[in-house]
Amino acid sequence: MSLTPAVPEPVTADPPRSTPSPLLTQSWLDMAFLHWAADPADVAPLLPAGTVPDTLDGVTYVGLVAFRMHRIGWFRLPGIPYLGTFPETNVRLYSVDAHGRRGVVFRSLDASRLIPVIVARTAFRLPYVWSRMAIRHSGDTITYTGTRRWPGPRGAHSRITIRTGERIEEPTELEHFLTARWGMHNTFFGRPMYLPNTHPRWPLHRADLIECDEDLVAAAGLPEPAGPPVSVLYSPGVPVRFGRPARPNGIPAP
């Protein structure tokens, strides 16, 4: 039986809810957002049960997002400086569930620290992979590189270089749609899960794509991107708080 979602929550630049008792804290820094338009029919089979593609004007999107994870911490404890800080690049899709909650679905998350990869794969059933990665700054350009180690496919890679530009004072509807995401959909031991997050409003900047050599999107089971991305954005980053996961009926798990 196909899912009939409720009316999706509005796309809001600020979080629609608070996170007074966070499960996890972290910061996402030096964010590069690359997005390609996609047919919802191509994306739907790759989403968890209980969700459908989230669309804007009938179109959904595939995101390739590179950044520096900074100081992951549990509850209100201080973030971990070494094991909790590393480059990451993820392939993500956009989803909405039967309660109207908009979110992201991660098809892959490459990270350069093995222990966080193992923890995320085991505790949250997230498709993290261990990769050799680096982020290099040169003036107003940033280069993100990664080559996959385990579990594979070994050799899957990405090399992204952007030139950062001026601050966006009034992001467009599409720019909010692609970045203002207040939760993650996933499947946990065969059951749908929604993990909410909150953070300050994104400080977004224009960015020019200088180089993009990658096969992570195809390795994630999606059609290889045709042509340049329709949106390239940069953000210096935000601190993030994750709340407790919610059951399918919307009630937080104990």
From TrEMBL:
UniProt xrefs under Gene3D superfamilies: Acetoacetate decarboxylase-like
Region: Disordered, residue numbers: 1-20
PANTHER family, per the entry: DUF2071 DOMAIN-CONTAINING PROTEIN, DUF2071 FAMILY PROTEIN
Name of this chain's protein: DUF2071 domain-containing protein
Protein source organism: Streptosporangium subroseum
